[in-house]
Every structure is written in structure tokens, then in C-alpha cells.
Amino acid sequence: MQFVEEIVVEEFLPTVRSMLATALRERGLTQSEVAEVLGISQSAVSKYAHGDVTVNDRIASDERVESLVEELAQGLASGDVTPVRALIEIEVLVRELETGGDLLAQLHEEAVPRLADHDSSFRIHDPENELRTSERVLSSLRRGLGILENASGFSALIPAVGSNLVACTPDAEGVDDVAGVPGRIFDVKGRATVPAGPEFGVSEHVATVLLAARDHGGDVSAAINVRYEPALLAELDELGHVTAEFNESGDIASSVGDAVGAEPDATVLYQTGGMGIEPLIYVLGTDAESVADDVRSLS
């Protein structure tokens, strides 16, 4: 089993880095300067310079790769292009080459021939493919959960009803389009415990809050619930979040909709509880990792 990302890491990146290192050296940069610009070690630059790194000739000879390497080398050498800008440009090209029958997709199908023979209506390299979209959501959730599990103080933020980190597909319409943790995340002897890997359709409560926020214009795709405290709201406000209160005693979707309608930029929703209702804060964001990062900063 080989994923296209492995081809990117094992063949595309070494090839592009080797090409960039050579082009930068040709423009007068020292070995240490090349290492700093590319964010790699001097020993790695030395390996590229001496041909100790295997280069994929098909990638190296692709006109788009050649053109981008020359453009970035010129910009990096002159200072007109920052390393971050170069990274973004390379990332954009990677996504282009992964799409449809393009270069990286071809290399992947050659490495895993059965992909090419799989149901012709199914194209794993189609960026709109439902399975690929779902896997991206689940991968994001797994990374977000990893952040929370390693956050030393997160367990103290888990409410009595448990927490759930959820994320949805771009065109989510219902809870089946939202992935979360089966059974929720609980505090077990001071440690956040994730009982199972994320799945779609297993969260109703937090998923409903997320979907309602999206339905009323919220530009969010992930959410988590934590215990309510005024001090936590103040910290989230300092992080740049906009807060809005809603009433959870009635119809949640309508209450959340009213709150987001009144405060369209809200990324933190909260309710202060009631008869049989635990007060909670819901932190929303563009993806599971950013939501987890915000919560970790509260720990």
C-alpha cells in the first residue's frame, strides 16, 4: 500500500530540493545560505550538491517543475521571494500534479497499478472525490485529537458530559457529514481519553451546533465543546475570537442560528446552563487542528 503523499515526500521533494539547491549555488549562495533558505541542514545541501540524493528524472524534466524552480531560485537569491512564499508555490504545484491524470497521479497509479483498474467512475486523484474529501476530514481530526491528547491541561477543560472534537465536509448538510469521536472524550483520572478513532455520523450534539452555525453564515468547519467559565471566555476573546451567547434549553439549531445571525463573526458560542443543562463553551474554527490549538492555549 502506497499513498500519493509518499511519492511527494520520497520523490518529488528530494528532486525539487536538489534542483533548488543547485540553482541557488549557481547564483552565488554559500552552502550555509542555501541550507537556511531551504530550511534543511548543510549536510543535506552537500548531499544534493554531490548527487547523493536520487532525483526522479520525470519530475525534474517536467516543464512546470523546471519553470517554478528557476522562478523561485531567482526570487530566493535576490530576496524578492520569501521561503514561506516559495513553500506555498511548491504546495500549489503539488496539488496540481496530484489532480486527475497529471504527473504525480500517474506515478502513483504506476506504483499501485490496481488504482488505474479500479471502477472507472472512481478517481482517487480527483480533488472532489468524496472518499478523498472524507479522508482529509478524518486526517485533520486525528491530528487535532493528537494535539489535545498531548495538551497537559486539556482534561481539566472537559465538561461532565464529555467533549467532542468534530469536523465536517465542505458541503455538509447533516450529522452524517460530520465526523467526531464515538462516545466522546472523557477525563479519566486526570487524562483526556479518546475511546476510538474519529468516524462520521457519531456526534449529534456538537455536530448540530456546528451545522447550525454554518447554516447561518458561519465560516467554520470544526468545533469542540469545553466546560464554561467566564475566565475561559475572556481568554478566548484575547485570542481574537468573537463570542456569542445562545439558549440551549430550546431548539439548539434555532438558538445557535439566532446567535450567529446577530453576531456573524462569532467563533465561540456559549450557554450558561439551566435546569438539567450543563453550561458549555463551543469553540469553532476552520479545521480541527486550529480548534485544538486554541483549546490547548487555554490548558
Automatic annotation (TrEMBL):
Limits of the HTH cro/C1-type domain: 20-48
Source organism, top-level taxon: Archaea
InterPro entries linked to this entry: Aldolase_II/adducin_N_sf, Cro/C1-type_HTH, Lambda_DNA-bd_dom_sf, ThiN
SMART domains referenced in this protein's UniProt entry, alphabetically: HTH_XRE
One term of GO molecular function: DNA binding
PANTHER family named among the record's database cross-references: HTH CRO_C1-TYPE DOMAIN-CONTAINING PROTEIN, TRANSCRIPTIONAL REGULATOR PROTEIN-LIKE PROTEIN
Name the record gives this protein: Helix-turn-helix domain-containing protein
Organism: Natrarchaeobius chitinivorans
